[in-house]
Write a structure and sequence with these properties.
This protein is mainly alpha-helical. 74% of the residues lie in helices and 0% in strands.
Length: 58
């Protein structure tokens, strides 16, 4: 879905790459791969997601 939204112009390729990186952190957490992320990554992910949502809703 991320690639499709970028393709139709909902956001640019840089935003698409940020979302892909955020999804990687989320997937690592969901699958218990705690060696792949740390508390700072999770905090950053939450802030980025909140910012992306706020930008889209404004």
């Amino acid at each position: 879905m991320n690639a499709d939204l970028a393709k139709v112009g909902q956001y640019n390729s840089l935003v698409q790459k940020r979302i892909t990186a955020l999804a990687a952190i989320r997937n690592s957490a969901a699958h218990g791969n705690s060696a792949e992320f740390d508390d700072a990554n999770v905090s950053s992910m939450i802030e980025e997601v909140e910012k992306l949502v706020a930008d889209w809703l404004s």
